[in-house]
Write a structure and sequence with these properties.
By secondary structure, the protein is of the alpha+beta class. It has five domains: about 15-210 and about 385-495, 3-Layer(bba) Sandwich (FAD/NAD(P)-binding domain); about 215-230 and about 280-380, Elongation Factor Tu (Ef-tu), domain 3; about 235-270, no CATH class; about 500-590, tRNA uridine 5-carboxymethylaminomethyl modification enzyme MnmG/GidA (Arc Repressor Mutant, subunit A, Orthogonal Bundle); about 605-665, Orthogonal Bundle (DNA polymerase, domain 1). The protein is about 35% helix and about 15% strand. Strands 1, 2, 3, 7, 8, 9, 10 and 21 form an eight-stranded mixed beta sheet that branches. A six-stranded antiparallel beta sheet has the order 15-16-17-18-14-19, with no helix packed on it. The protein has a four-stranded antiparallel beta sheet with strand order 12-11-20-13, with no helix packed on it. The model is unreliable at about 1-10 and about 260-275 (pLDDT under 50).
């Protein structure tokens, strides 16, 4: 570890406000956020051609994950926009369920996604992008407290900054495993970052090992699609980003018959003809008993079962061999055949993650009728890598051992593009604010899925890669994907991440929703003969007495379109506003209940724990609790109460201790 004590000259070309190491999904969002806030930023990547690469499934979204993408977009991030620019298919999941768990999911063109994001980074003012391998950190000390002052590349070049963000993905001592073959790599075809891993270990970080994997890719021309089940995209225009929705709205206003500008909403925004790109279909197949027999016969060659892999992979994305062993009673498992782009024949076999030998992978796939003649273009593989358990970072994502160092993505134990992007944008925001000597930004659990994600990472001691699900958010009815802008838009504007025009549109929409909901209280539905006839045509059962419009909308067989048909709600509402009005009315009681719970718990979150508390001096605390609190260093009573193993009685003892400290007379 280098200790470089001479401060850089402000005019030096190698001096920045923020340095971002890595340009995966976390690194891209971190670098863009810092630059858009106004900081001079540089992002380092091992390969300029692999920016925002999608080494696993080229998809974005899904339950919990789509919520993160919409929140990234609400904060001015790029993932949603880039997905809308490059999607080959998009659809809404869980449409038969409530709004809290409905979620968008898109398939992206893998290469187009990377190229588009690279272009965004290159065109962003105040952001430099450099190809280099980062080997070490520059450490300085301020009154004995270590902090990061920059990085050193493999060529010995030093770059200085007021804050550094590490988004190293699977590159820290990465190792790829296929059957009995194993070799160092950060991803297939890319070198690992062994030196940086050693540098972090010397800084007193605790390192662990995690594992993830990817399935084989097959040649789409060798699939018998007549033996598959078709999965089409949505017939209705769907988008992740605010910009795409605005472009579509503008296109519809100019021409009501315009098709959705999914392929190029930027062109639509600038007045060009909005082109509709037909979506690529996905297909569904199932494993067979023959598939399972092949896998079982070769388990001795599977690194997960012969000791070749010792680290833990994500529970909710297991390898195909793990599925066969864990769910031995199942006769088949679903596999999804998903195209990787418009200009490639590669098809991603979702659900078939594996590290079995390549010849076994081929035999396994060919045991499925639709894949009898399939050709494997890329073998699946597992990858092990170093990570830093998330309890070593604060809610701001600043590391505890080193000040001015921020961590985001798989380096602190997550899995998935969306989780990485969410952590990246928050790390970039807080690194930029540290560089400008401003207060950190921390999102609460009741404020955003991003808040849930970060709180879980820094509080819970994970033994597997963390993946976001809607079940992890206790206030998920408040955190719907369709109200992300209402929750985070004002904050994004205050941070300088969205412009005044977008903020003004958001405020206008919020007032419009409030006005319509309020108006429903004053409107009555009178069931005369004509109204009854019209409701019958709409498939709605009338009542025998007049009813308030708000109460009528609360019925399960009534939707807001019926009130629009009856003239009780303006007919020209955007789909977003109409959906928000209906949700606000139908779920008002549930929302009020959750808001009450939030207020109750907020009292615990507002009770700050002094940073100098010595837990080993708290009388009545169990030894296990002392050790956990000392290691995690919770900042509030609410945070302490969520630490695994900390009981309600522990919290009571801690509250008594804090009250005793508060009552002590001030010395001097």
């Amino acid at each position: 570890m280098n200790d470089y004590r001479s401060p850089p000259s402000p005019a030096s070309s190698d001096s920045y406000d923020v340095i971002v190491v890595g340009t995966g999904h976390a690194g891209c969002e971190a670098a863009l956020a810092a630059a858009r806030i106004g900081c001079r930023t540089v992002a380092f990547t091992m390969n300029l051609d692999n920016i925002a690469l999608m080494p696993c499934n080229p998809s974005v979204g899904g339950p919990g994950k789509a919520h993160l993408v919409r929140e990234i977009d609400a904060l001015g991030g790029e993932m949603g926009r880039n997905t809308d620019r490059t999607s080959v298919q998009i659809r809404m999941l869980n449409t038969s369920k409530g709004p809290a768990v409905q979620a968008l999911r898109a398939q992206s063109d893998k290469r187009a996604y990377s190229q588009s994001m690279k272009s965004v980074l290159e065109e962003q003012p105040r952001l430099d992008v450099k190809q280099a391998v980062v080997d070490d950190l520059i450490i300085e000390h301020d009154q004995g407290v270590p902090h990061v002052a920059g990085i050193i590349t493999s060529t010995g070049t030093r770059y200085f900054a007021r804050a550094v963000v590490l988004t190293t993905g699977t590159f820290l001592k990465g190792r790829i495993i296929i059957g009995e073959q194993s070799y160092p790599a950060g991803r297939a075809g890319e070198f690992p970052a062994d030196s940086l891993s050693g540098s972090l270990a010397r800084c007193s970080f605790r390192l662990g090992r995690l594992k993830t994997g990817t399935p084989p890719r097959i040649d789409g021309r060798t699939i018998d699609y007549s033996l598959t089940s078709l999965q089409r995209g949505s017939d209705s225009p769907l988008f992740f980003s605010h910009d795409a929705r605005e472009a579509y709205r503008n296109a519809r206003m100019s021409s009501p018959d315009a098709r959705a500008p999914i392929a190029d909403f930027e062109a639509a925004r600038h007045g060009s003809d909005p082109a509709w790109r037909s979506q690529l279909p996905c297909h569904l197949v199932q494993t067979t008993q023959e598939t399972h027999d092949i896998i079982r016969a070769n388990l001795h060659l599977a690194p997960m079962y012969n000791g070749g892999i010792t680290s833990v992979g994500p529970r909710y994305c297991p390898s195909i061999e793990t599925k066969i062993v864990r769910f031995a009673e199942k006769q088949s498992h679903l596999l999804f055949l998903e195209p990787e782009g418009w200009k490639t024949r590669e098809v991603y076999v979702q659900g078939a993650n594996t590290s079995l030998p390549e010849d076994v992978q081929g035999a396994m796939l060919r045991s499925i009728p639709a894949l009898r003649r399939c050709e494997v273009m890329r073998a699946g593989y597992a990858i092990e890598y170093d990570y830093l358990p998330g309890t070593q970072v604060y809610h701001s994502l600043e590391s505890k051992p080193l000040r001015n160092l921020y961590l985001a993505g798989q380096i602190i134990g997550t899995t998935g593009y969306e989780e990485a992007g969410a952590l990246g944008i928050m790390a970039g925001i807080n690194a930029a604010r540290r560089a400008r000597s401003q207060d950190e930004v921390v999102l609460r659990r009741d404020q955003a899925y991003i808040g849930v994600l970060i709180d879980d990472l820094v509080t819970k001691e994970m033994d597997e890669p963390y993946r976001m699900h809607t079940s992890q958010a206790e206030f998920r009815l408040l955190l719907r994907q369709d109200n992300a802008e209402e929750r985070l838009g004002a904050l994004a504007f205050d941070l300088g991440l969205v412009d005044e025009q977008r903020h003004r549109r958001l405020e206008d929409r919020r007032r419009q929703i409030e006005t319509i909901v309020s108006g429903l209280d004053d409107s009555w539905l009178r069931f005369d003969r004509e109204t009854t006839r019209r409701l019958d045509v709409l498939g709605c059962r009338p009542t025998r007495q007049n009813v308030r419009a708000r109460d009528f909308l609360c019925r399960t067989d009534v939707h807001i379109g019926m009130l629009q048909e009856l003239g009780l709600v303006p007919s020209e509402l955007s789909d977003e506003v109409a959906r928000e009005v209906e949700t606000a009315v139908k779920y008002a009681g549930y929302v009020a209940r959750q808001e009450g719970e939030v207020k109750r718990l907020r009292r615990l979150e507002d009770r700050v724990i002094p940073p100098d508390v010595q837990y080993d001096s708290v009388r009545g605390l169990r030894a296990e609790t002392m050790e956990r609190l000392s290691r995690i260093q919770p900042r509030t009573i609410g945070h302490a109460s969520r630490i695994a193993g900390v009981t309600a009685s522990d919290i009571s003892v801690l509250l008594v201790h804090l009250e005793q400290i508060r009552r002590q007379p001030v010395q001097g």
